[in-house]
Amino acid sequence: MSNLEPFLPISLPSNCRQYLVNPGEILVRPYIGRDEVYLSEVSPANPDYKYINILKDAVKGIDPGELTLGDRQYIMIWEYIQSYGGFIRESAICSHCLSEVSFKVDLRELDVISIPDDMTFPHDVTLPVSGKVVKLRLLTVNDEIAACNFESSEKNGLIFRCARTMVDDTNILERIEFLSNLQAMDLAKIRAFHEKFDHGPDMRVKFKCQECGEEDQTSIPFRLDIIFPRGNTLTEFIGEGI
Question: What's the start-to-end Cα distance of the chain, in Å?
C-alpha cells in the first residue's frame, strides 16, 4: 500500500530562529481527506482554534502552538498550493480609474519575507523614553489564541499581545501593568519590533486593470477559501474539466 501521508521538509520564513528544534526535522504533509472535515468547520469566528487542530496532525517536529504567526501563514499557503494547486481569484479597485478588477493569482509566485539568519530571540529592545531594556520574542499561535480569549470579554488585546511576547520573570498581569504605564513612545517601540520582524508570505500582488490598462497593486486579505476552497474558487480552479 502506498504512503497516504507523505511528510515533506519545509523551510520556514522565521528560519526557526525562535524555536529550540532542529529545522531539518520540521515536516509537513499536504491535506488528506480527514483534514477537509476540520477545514470545513473553520470560520471567521474560530480560525485560530480550528486550524491548530489540523496542524497538530499535519506538522511534525514542532508544537504547532509555538509556531510564529508568519510561519503559520506560510504553512497555510504551502498547504493550499500542495493540496489544491495554488490558484485563487482576487478582486480590487483600480486606483487609476476606480474600476473593479477581477484577476487570477498564482500563490506560488508570492515573495516570502524571511527573518535574517543572524537574528536571535529573545531580542533586547531599549525603550527610548524610560531607557529600560525589555526582551521580546515573536508572537506565536498560542499567543494569538490567548489574545482571542482575552478579547472575547470585550477587552482590547493590543497591550495583552505585547505582554505575551515579553521574556522575563514577571507574570502576565504584572507585564500588562508595566506596559500600561509606559510613555506612548516606549510602547510604540515594542509595537515597532513586531512590525520590523513581520515575516511570511508577502501577500501583495500586482494586477493589470482591464479597463484602463494600468498596473496596480493590492494586498490579499485573510480569506477562508485560501484555507478551504469553496464557492467560485472551488468550481473555477479545482472543478475545471468536470
Answer: 29
